Amino acid sequence: MISFNHVTVAFKNGSHALDDVSFSIQPNEFVFLVGPSGAGKSTILNAVMGVFKPSHGSVNVGDPSIDVTKLAGNRLAEFRQNIGFVFQDFKIIPHKNIFENVLVALRAKHVPAQFQKNEVMNNLKNVGLEKKAFEFPIQLSAGELQRVAIARALAGDRKILLADEPTGNLDPKTTWDVMKLFVSLAPSRTIVIATHNTDVVASLNKRVIQLDKGKVVNEQHNTNSHTKFL
Ligand SMILES: Nc1ncnc2c1ncn2[C@@H]1O[C@H](COP(=O)(O)OP(=O)(O)O)[C@@H](O)[C@H]1O
Ligand SMILES: [Mg+2]
After folding, report:
1. What are the start-end ranges of the E strands in 43-175?
2. pTM of the predicted model, to two decimals?
3. Neighbours of 109 (CB within 10 A)
4. Under a CB-based contact definition with an 8 Å cutoff, are residues 149 and 86 in contact?
5. What is the dihedral of CA 100, 105, 107, 112, to 10 degrees?
6. Could you read off the pLDDT of 147-175 as tens digits, one per residue?
7. Which of 4, 8, 11 to mutate to test the pocket of ligand 1 (most atoms within 8 A of CB)?
8. Dihedral angle at the C-alpha atoms of 90, 96, 97, 99, nearest 10 degrees?
9. Ligand 1 pocket, residue 13 CB under 6 Å
């Protein structure tokens, strides 16, 4: 569960990245965050991670939920290990092979050594890249690198996956492959994707939260899901 309750994020220069934003995302929901550049999409994802402290409101995450705005230090770092994050520019470590790139996430979560190999390979299988485990990033295409990043984000059984413009650096065909991969991973995870790609959003029948100038301006609920109407 992710719940924003009257969240305002203001910056020192007086601008508001989020202005009294409220919405709830249920466990295992798949949601697109859309809106023009500067609308507040990245700020929402970062607020879920506790990166931005709202000047007003609360951000409750998990089940049982905790108010992320109240966390700091080790407790915040520990909380973040429950969430996978996928970036536009992949953030794959170039001098480590694919296996080691995913392993980093397991080490961060303190997954015991005897489970690590299986867990890395299972996550690479989930994204169709188990055969490339011992290749290096330079040998992979952009789409494959983003799939590695998705495997890394899920490693350690993370139930919440956030992605910020994950297809922003990909061509149209690869964009579609990566979005279909997210959809295939969805049923047992909560997935929130910030994207500019209106074609993809229009084609996939998923819930959409539309933002503009730091406010929620439209919320569609996926009629196939079991979520309540707000
Ligand atoms: N550190 C910051 N200081 C001041 N303003 C910021 C900062 N970070 C983001 N903003 C502003 O907050 C608004 C929302 O930004 P952002 O969440 O990145 O939008 P989006 O991801 O939808 O493009 C923008 O107007 C942006 O300029
Ligand atoms: Mg952004």
Report:
1. 56-61, 66-67, 83-86, 160-164
2. 0.93
3. 15
4. yes
5. -100
6. 999 999 999 999 999 999 999 999 999 99
7. 11
8. -80
9. yes
